[in-house]
Amino acid sequence: MNLKHLLLAGGALLTGTSAWAGGFQVTLAGQKNNGMGGVGVGLSLDQAAMFYNPGALAMVRQNGVQIGANATFARSAFRAQSGTEQRELRNSTVTPFSLYGSFGPSEGKFRAGIAVYTPFGSKLQYANGWEGRYSLTDIDLKSIFVQPTVSYAITDQLSVGAGLVVLAYGSVNLQKDIPITGQSGQPGHLELDGKAKNKLGFNAGVFFKPSDKLSIGVSYRSRVDATVEGGDVKFTNLPASVGANFTANQFDVTLPLPATTSVGVGLMPTEKVTIGFDVNFVEWSSYKSLDFTFAGNNGGGPNAGLVGGSTTSSSRREYQDALTFRLGGQYQVTEGLTVRLGTSYDFSPVKDSFVTPETPDADRVGISTGITYKIGENFGVDASVQFIDVAKRTQTQDDLINSGTTDRVAGTYKTRVVTPGLGFTYNF
Q1: Mean per-residue pLDDT, 391-400
Q2: What CA–CA distance (Å, rounded) separates 13 from 312?
Q3: Of residues 36 and 312, which shows the higher confidence score?
Q4: CATH number at residue 267
Q5: Virtual CA dihedral for 61, 280, 118, 137, nearest 10 degrees?
Q6: Helix extents (H) in 384-423
Q7: What number is the average pLDDT over the span 376-398?
Q8: Which domain holds residue 251?
Q9: Which of 7, 213, 229, 369 has its CA 20 to 30 A from that of 56?
């Protein structure tokens, strides 16, 4: 075993990034959308259209500012193939947020805006002493994206838009135990900590509303390569006798954040009812392997009892493209109160025998609900909650041997996620 058994965890910098399919995704870009199962490509609900479909922003006639935040509570459990004890993850919470502002002439065809959002993030803390501790004990992933956006209504029915997507901040912290007993009598420990370089991509869309009862949208988010250069490598609690085998102090890695194509349809059968349906296609197949380069030895050599001892590490991923289906609706109960309900089905990009501890991924079903309460003509409060049930996923040691993926853990994973959210909107 060498350092790559931790670096499996580095895939979370990618597998959590998709705003649509697979991984520890965070589909929480807009509070109204959250309450409707995450639909939004074929609708022009509010300023969050900058994320879902920039082409729809021009059809949001009011200027406005909105801010929202969520608390994501993920509960995961693991049972080893040969074990009887179920390992519960320690409690962890992430708090994705969003901020939007749009401006333009009240009767004009042009809208411009700025969006700040956190479409992915992950925090997992496995139980002390769990069977996969030599692959992963902790992961903490954070990101902030900034998107300046412009949108133009070519006609009263057709509009287009685009945004420059900037990875403004990204960080990852990964930790694992090392199967060497240190001076304290406990296993050695390894921590990777790095910041991602600023990178650029784009988000573009077209929105078409042929009638008051129908709208159609198409959007595309480009691939962005997330790169960490000169990340810190820290070894602790290792005996001096093996120090020469653990000299790495920095790491570099580049991970493709895949492109996403989305199609959405909106139906407005009455003035009070809105229904949305989205399909998202994520090009996960671009993620074939996770490759690291180190400054120094990554932990091999006969004295360490480990295999390898080079300045590189590679782990197979072999992801496949994935689809997500979303359906949601809202009903305006009164002039000031709107209620919402939605669902989603998300196909995992992770193949059998390729599940890793940092992303115990499987097909998932989501249910969501939400409300908006308007206070006066300009101010509104949005609330939502999502429930995500990730299917149980099992891989045996024979499966791992047959697939050549013995650098991960045999056993069964199960995850559920609950995410409440609150937002405030001011239109002018």
Answers
A1: 90
A2: 18
A3: 36
A4: 2.40.160.60
A5: 170
A6: 397-403
A7: 93
A8: 4-427
A9: 369
Which residues lie below 8 Å from residue 139, measured CB to CB, with a gap of 6+? Answer: 9, 12, 122, 123, 124, 172, 173, 174, 175, 358
338 confidence band (pLDDT: 50, 70, 90): very high
> What is the pTM (predicted TM-score) of this model?
0.85
Q: Mean pLDDT of all residues in the chain?
A: 85
- Side-chain-side CA neighbours of residue 84 (13 Å): 0
- Give CA–CA dist 300/168, Å, rounded: 36
The residue that leads in pLDDT, 269 or 88, is: 269
Residue in this structure with the two tokens 């650098």, named with its chain if needed: 407
Which residues does 229 contact at the CB level (< 8 Å), separation at least 6? Answer: 197, 252
If you write DSSP's letter for every residue of 127-160 in order, what string do you get? PTT-TTTTT-SEEEEEEEEEEEEEEEESSSSEEE
Instruction: Give the chain's length.
Output: 428
Give the model confidence (pLDDT) of 79-99 as tens digits: 888 877 777 766 556 678 899
Residue 54 corresponds to which tokens in the numbers above? Answer: 């920039």
Amino acid at residue number 38: G
Question: How far apart, in whole angstroms, are the C-alpha atoms of residue 369 and residue 385?
Answer: 6
